[in-house]
Design brief:
By secondary structure, the protein is α/β, with parallel strands linked by helices. It has helices at 24-28, 42-55, 69-80, 100-106, 113-132, 139-160, 165-173, 179-189, 202-224, 235-245, 249-265, 268-286, 290-296, 318-342, 367-377, 388-394, 400-409, 422-432, and strands at residues 9-11, 22-23, 31-34, 59-63, 86-89, 311-314, 352-357, 379-385, 413-417, 434-446, 450-462, 482-489, 500-506.
Length: 518
């Protein structure tokens, strides 16, 4: 395997020295690209970074919004000589599939299988609420949804010793809606001497399986105890003994306490919303092509393939598959991030990238936390979007502004292409900073005599005014396929003595670089 020096130069801008070049180390600190429609952000700086990463042997993950992104990346791979490293997860084929529940059941994050599944689904569900409905930051709402999801997963695992999307959906949608209904169902389960067994809901089936198994285990345990021992125990002592001796007994009590107690104390409307939130999300995963690609078949692709130099393209563009494609890609993205964080750099130090054009569609609440440690995990993230408003709109809640700015603060390199958005241009101008300039003044007084006085003072002004960003070249034939951008890099000083550089990207030039074979 090749070695990757953190100071390896990936890009050197015209007129700059190696000291101000964009290195492997800079790539791991994250890149955010802003640019309005037709500004050249994707075909300019985004294209350049993608090809450079491929040429230097990166593995990677590509998220898609537009239908043509797969073809674009296949072209990049061909330019870099990496065609054989591309893996495309897309409808209409069974060669490349990823069963996320199967994968999570085998991962060790220092937590239980239940916690692994809960964390994945919880993260993606919350992100989907932010993007499509506007989630409240109310802790009660979040905790209630978390409890419901966690208990449904636990019941599924106790009853069937496995978790599938179908089982989760069936159990979640058949939980009794009222305490009276639950009591009636429990009464019906006794059969009351009737010949015909009443049909059970999926929730009832799961509960009955667990209770029968626990009941048999308790009887067997009682028989194994010395004569008179069980009767010598107090009720509390007996419960403590069962908690320790009978697998699942303690969890069953907690399930019963939640479903027959806490869950019914929640208002009908709130409970209905919680149930609908989970079941509607699971239903999207149950529909093809998402179900066949991410839940039905054994995995043939895992995030770890990127550590072998593979480039995984999730060809489920949001413009075609809408929320289902969006949720599936967010789910894979989150699992991929956790896998990259867990890898041992001493054993495998291959750089990997994650590129997301129209990145607002795939933002997660964990992105800022992940990016804070991406450098040590050797992960190069590239997020492209038109303006800051896209992030504000997709990171819902009362603290969206702080969340967006916190997220952007973890991305050390910012690239600003032409833009007509005032807020984004103001952000760019403020990021570049201000400098003192000479402000010359001249006063003329006309009276009995004419007097002229001149003066000068220092005035603090923006180095690059916000309106300058709307004048940048946008590429295409009218600009000889050249698009311009201001680049701000943390910790770099360019030849102008500043932390920014005005660069030009040619949309047709193929970057020349020795390709590192993977």
């Amino acid at each position: 395997m090749p070695t990757w020096d953190l100071d390896t130069q990936l890009l050197r801008f015209v007129g700059e020295s190696p000291a101000s070049s964009f290195t492997l180390r800079n790539s791991f600190e994250g890149v955010q690209v802003f640019g309005g429609i037709g500004s050249g952000k994707s075909t300019g700086s985004g294209r350049m970074l993608a090809i450079k990463y491929l040429q230097h042997g990166f593995g990677g993950l590509v998220l898609t919004v537009k239908p043509d992104e797969k073809d674009i990346w296949m072209e990049y791979a061909e330019i870099a000589g990496r065609q054989n490293d591309v893996i495309v997860i897309e409808p209409g084929q069974k060669k490349y599939v990823f069963n996320f529940l199967e994968y999570e059941s085998k991962k060790d994050y220092g937590t239980t299988y239940t916690d692994n599944i809960h964390q994945v689904l919880r993260t993606v569900i919350r992100a989907s609420e932010e993007k499509n409905e506007g989630r409240s930051d109310d802790a009660f709402w979040q905790d209630s949804l978390d409890l419901f999801l966690n208990n449904v997963i636990t019941l599924c695992l106790l009853a069937y010793n496995k978790v599938t999307v179908q089982l989760l959906f069936d159990i979640a949608q058949s939980v009794p809606k009222k305490i009276e209904q639950a009591n009636k169902e429990n009464s019906d389960n006794t059969n009351n001497g009737q010949d015909k067994e009443p049909e059970l809901t999926e929730y009832q089936k799961a509960v009955r399986i667990v209770k029968n198994r626990i009941s048999l285990a308790i009887k067997d345990w009682n028989r194994q105890q010395p004569e008179g021992y069980v009767h010598s125990l107090t009720e509390i002592q007996y419960e403590e003994q069962l908690d320790e001796a009978i697998p699942g007994y303690r969890e069953l009590k907690m399930l019963d306490s939640f479903f027959m107690g806490s869950f019914f104390s929640i208002g009908d409307k709130t409970r209905a919303i919680i149930e609908f939130c989970l079941t509607s999300f699971l239903q999207k995963l149950l529909r093809d092509p998402i179900y066949s690609l991410f839940a039905r078949y054994p995995s043939t692709v895992t995030p770890e393939h990127c550590l072998q130099g593979k480039i995984i393209i999730l060809n489920l563009p949001v413009k075609i598959y809408h929320h289902a494609g969006q949720y599936a890609q967010m789910l894979f993205k989150y699992i991929w991030q956790r896998a990259m964080e867990q890898r041992n750099i001493a054993q495998n130090n291959r750089p990997v990238f994650m590129v997301s054009d129209e990145a607002q569609h795939f933002t997660l609440e964990s992105d800022a936390v992940f990016q804070a440690t991406a450098r040590s995990s050797r992960v190069a993230t590239v997020y492209l979007t038109q303006n800051m408003a896209n992030y504000f709109a997709n990171m819902g809640g009362q603290k969206s502004e702080y969340r967006v700015k916190s997220f952007l603060g973890t991305l050390a390199t910012k690239i600003f292409h032409a833009n007509a958005d005032v807020e984004t241009n103001s952000y760019a101008s403020e990021l570049i900073g201000e400098a003192y300039t000479d402000d010359h003044s001249k006063n003329i007084t006309i009276g009995g005599n004419v007097s002229v006085s001149k003066g000068s003072s220092l005035k603090l002004e923006a180095i690059v005014r916000k309106e300058e960003f709307s004048r940048l070249k946008t590429g295409g034939p009218l600009n000889d396929y050249v698009c311009e951008a201001y680049i701000v890099m943390q910790g770099k000083v360019f030849s102008n003595g500043m932390n920014f550089h005005k660069a030009a990207f040619h949309q047709l030039i193929i970057p020349k670089e020795r390709t590192i074979n993977s």
